[in-house]
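Help needed: design a sequence for this.
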């Protein structure tokens, strides 16, 4: 799986209220393919 470290600030929200700021060093953004060869996945 391709991934890059998160650079944005991520907040956790519960019932419309911010409850915490998540620690960036523990988060990764997964990168999914936008285009692929159909025979590779079927």
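Sure. Designed sequence:
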């Amino acid at each position: 799986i391709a991934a890059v470290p998160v650079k944005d600030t991520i907040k956790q929200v519960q019932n419309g209220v911010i409850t915490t700021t998540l620690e960036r060093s523990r988060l990764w953004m997964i990168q999914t393919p936008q285009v692929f060869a159909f025979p590779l996945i079927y």
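Residues 2-41 form one domain.
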